Automatic annotation (TrEMBL):
Domain of life, per lineage: Bacteria
Entry keyword Ligase: no
Family: Belongs to the ABC transporter superfamily.
PROSITE patterns: ABC_TRANSPORTER_1, ABC_TRANSPORTER_2
One Pfam entry name: ABC_tran
MF terms in GO: ATP binding
InterPro entries, sorted: AAA+_ATPase (IPR003593), ABC_transporter-like_ATP-bd (IPR003439), ABC_transporter-like_CS (IPR017871), ABC_transpr_TagH-like (IPR015860), Bact_Polysacc_Export_ATP-bd (IPR050683), P-loop_NTPase (IPR027417)
UniProt-listed PANTHER family: TEICHOIC ACIDS EXPORT ATP-BINDING PROTEIN TAGH
UniProt protein name: ABC transporter ATP-binding protein
Keywords, in A-Z order: ATP-binding, Nucleotide-binding, Transport
UniProt KW Nucleotide-binding keyword: yes
Boundaries of every ABC transporter domain copy: 31-251
Length: 277
């Protein structure tokens, strides 16, 4: 079966509620403005006319400044949000490592949550029944399988979410930064599992600011700015296009200049310290 992602003129607009500025001044008005002034609804375009194809075998990095739209695009690719305009076609099974607690219920047991989360991910109950023990073992939570989820620490929940999300191999992996949370013993096995899943998937989409990681793992890059597609192509060229965005911003100081400024400051401090009283 072919594995592919194709977007044509794809946009996402979302309703956004913005508080109006209070008409009268005064601290109580400012604090309680929501009670006096109704919010105004406006629509925001978060993704704007994206056109791209991701083919079988591609490892694609999403690059862009904060707020460029990378996480939103991953959510759209995962099926959590539907594009409001244009077309998106995703062929292949997909796994998003975005929100590891998605579909959890605090009042259900750890074991029940494995079924809840698995179903939310579109997996069959019979498949989950086969996997439940290995998931508990991987998350190191077998002993608390019948305890309610709310008794777990945030690290234990994260381990559970990761163990469920990565329990089966999918065709398409969607990731927001390379996973690196958890305690030392968990990180080591989580990294091994993640590398296996990434090696075994046919398309990976990774949103990251870590250029070293991107160079190591990705073959192509898609650069976004203000929700618009700025570049798509080989990863090195994508990194250049991303750097060009922030280098063109007012107030940008090249790293080299920063080094010189720091060296000058240190020299001035040394001169001051050496000066006789
Ligand atoms: N549900 C929402 N309603 C309104 N605006 C939203 C919503 N979700 C995201 N945004 C806005 O959309 C823009 C893109 O957000 P997104 O999280 O996709 O950016 P990003 O590129 O992943 O940023 P970062 O690098 O900081 O993680 C931001 O300006 C954000 O405020």
């Amino acid at each position: 079966m072919t594995v592919k992602i194709q977007a044509k003129g794809m946009s996402l607009k979302v309703p956004n509620y913005v508080q109006r500025a209070p008409t009268a001044s005064g601290i109580m008005r400012e604090i309680l403005s929501e009670a006096f002034v109704r919010s105004r609804r406006e629509y925001r375009t978060i993704l704007d006319g994206l056109d791209f194809t991701v083919d079988d075998g591609d490892r694609i990095a999403l690059l862009g400044r904060n707020g460029a739209g990378k996480t939103t695009l991953l959510r759209v690719l995962s099926g959590a949000f539907q594009p409001t305009e244009g077309m998106l076609e995703v062929q292949g099974t997909r796994q998003a490592l975005l929100n590891l607690s998605l579909g959890f219920n605090n009042n259900a047991s750890v074991r029940e949550n494995i079924f809840l989360r698995g179903t939310a991910m579109g997996m069959k109950l019979s498949k989950m029944a086969e996997l439940v023990d290995s998931i508990l073992e991987f998350a190191d939570l077998a002993e608390v399988a019948r305890h309610r989820l709310l008794t777990l620490s945030s690290g234990q929940r994260m381990r559970l979410g990761f163990a469920i999300s990565t329990s089966v191999q999918h065709d398409i992996m969607l990731m927001d930064e390379w996973f690196g949370a958890g305690d030392a013993s968990f990180i080591a096995k989580a990294r091994t599992r993640l590398s296996d899943r990434v090696d075994g998937c046919r398309i990976m989409v990774l949103a990251s600011h870590n250029l070293q990681m991107i160079r190591k793992t990705c073959s192509r890059g898609l650069v976004l700015d203000g929700g618009r597609q700025v570049f798509i192509g080989p990863v090195e060229e994508a990194i250049d296009a991303y750097k060009a965005i922030y280098q063109s911003l007012p107030g940008y100081v090249p790293r080299y200049d920063k080094k010189i400024a720091r060296a000058k400051k240190r020299a001035a401090a040394r001169r001051k310290a050496a000066r006789p009283e």
